[in-house]
Design brief:
elongated; 69 residues; two-stranded antiparallel ribbon; 41% helix; mainly alpha
Length: 69
């Protein structure tokens, strides 16, 4: 999951963001690559990037609500 500011999304197109995310194994490496790409494209605004990798069995359904109704 990627959460970013417009400092990234306005400077780097979606396809390039996708390619960078797919080419990096580690999240810190991917975050750095995204920030570098935004800076190389002009870096006209603050650049914030939050990356989260969710792992688990494919298709596992678990409610986010921890309480039974």
């Amino acid at each position: 999951m990627l959460l970013c500011s417009d400092g990234l999304s306005d400077m780097v197109d979606d396809e390039t963001i996708s390619q960078l995310l797919q080419s990096c194994e580690l999240l810190p490496e991917a975050a750095s690559a995204l920030i570098d790409a935004a800076n190389e494209a002009g870096g006209k605004d603050n650049i914030s990037v939050v990356l989260v990798r969710v792992r688990g069995p494919a298709g596992a359904a678990r409610s986010w609500w921890p309480f039974r109704r």
